[in-house]
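Translate sequence into structure tokens.
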Amino acid sequence: MIELDCLEEIEGSVKDHDLVLFALSTCPHCRHARDFLEANDISYRFVYVDQLEGDERADVMKETEKYNPRRSFPTLVIDDGDVLVGFTEADWKEKLL
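Result follows.
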């Protein structure tokens, strides 16, 4: 389980997976990813990487890079294993619904 103090938790009724979303606050694909999770009432944790500073931002980028070496956004980590990079609704439905 990814443990970072900066992660915000969004509660939903669907708690099938431990989901961590690394996103940017200005990214439309990241917004679509969050909208998808919330529309399907899925619990997840997230962080807007661009709103962090200093060591905290560096630590989050290192964590992101473990799962997505390109460090592109959005990056969704599923149960510390599977990773979805970018937002394609069909891929997200297949993995999460």
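Note: The longest helix spans residues 54-67.
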